[in-house]
Amino acid sequence: MEIDVGVLKELxxxxxEVSGIVFKDSNLTVxxxxxxxxxxxKHCSPREYIQILRTNDQELRDFVDFVTTxxxxxxxxxxxxxxxxxxxxxxxxxxxxxxxxxxWSAGCSTGEEPYSLAITLDIFLRENEMFDWExxxxxxxxxxxxxxxxxxxxxxxKAFTKVPxxxxxxxxxxxxxxxxIVPEIAKHIRFDYHNLIYDNGLRDIPVVFCRxxxxxxxxxxxxxxxxxxHRAMRSGGFLFIGHSESLIxxxxxxxxxxxxxxxxxxxx
Length: 268
Ligand SMILES: C[S@@+](CC[C@H](N)C(=O)[O-])C[C@H]1O[C@@H](n2cnc3c(N)ncnc32)[C@H](O)[C@@H]1O
Fold this sequence. Notes:
Layout: H1 5-19, H2 28-42, H3 46-55, H4 57-67, H5 78-95, E1 100-106, H6 112-127, E2 134-141, H7 144-152, E3 154-155, H8 165-171, E4 172-174, E5 179-181, H9 183-186, E6 189-193, E7 205-210, H10 219-232, E8 233-241, E9 254-259, E10 262-267
C-alpha cells in the first residue's frame, strides 16, 4: 500500500510535538516502516491510525517509544568515564557539602550508561577509601520499552565485548537469561520515565550525562532541554554530551572546559 507523504509529515509533526524528536523529509522512511508495522497490527488505514494517535495518548506515547533510537553500550566513549573518575569526581567531592554524589543519566536508553556510571562511582569511592560516602544514579528516558530492559539489568554476553573482563566478573552475575548487575550496584540506581522537554524537579545535581540525545532535536527543543538540565544542576556542575554534539552556538548557559581526556561543559 502506498503511504501518502502528507500522512508521514503529519506523523512527523505529532512525534515532534510530543517528544521534540525531528524527522526530516529525508528521514521519513523510518517513520513509514514503523507506521506500516502499526497499521498491520491494528488493521486500519494510515489516516485512521493518525486519528487514533490524535485521540489516544497511550498509543501516541507507544508510537513515540517505537520510533526512538536507543543505541547505547557499556562505557561508551571510555575516555568520558576515565575523565569522570580521575578529574571530575575529585572536583565534585571538593565542592560537596554532604558525603553524597548524584549523577543523572538523561536519555539513558536501556541502562548501560547509568550502570557504567554506578560502577565508575563504586571504583572511585573504593580507590579513594571514601567508605562513608553514598552515591546515586538516576537514569531517565522517554522510552518505556528501554526502561523495562534497564530496570531488569540483565544483558547478553555480546554487550560486554568492550568491557574489561575483571569488571564483568566483579559487577555482573551470570544467569540463565544473561549477565545480571549485582544488587550492591543496582540498589544505587533509580530509573524514571521522563520527557526532557519538561522539568522533572531534580535540583543540585553535580554531574549530568546527556549524550547522543540532543542530536535528535532542533534548536528550539535543544534550548528547552538544556534549560531543564541547567535548572536541575548545581552551580559549577559538569555536563557530558556526545562526541558529535556541541553547545557552542546553541547557548552560553554552559561553558566548555578542557581536561586531559576531552571537553566537559560547566554550568555557568
Ligand atoms: C541514542 S540513545 C542514547 C543513550 C545513551 N545516552 C548513550 O549515549 O549511549 C538516545 C535516547 O534518548 C531518548 N530520548 C529521545 N527523546 C527524548 C526525550 N524527549 N526525553 C527523554 N528521552 C528522550 C531515546 O528514547 C533514547 O533512548
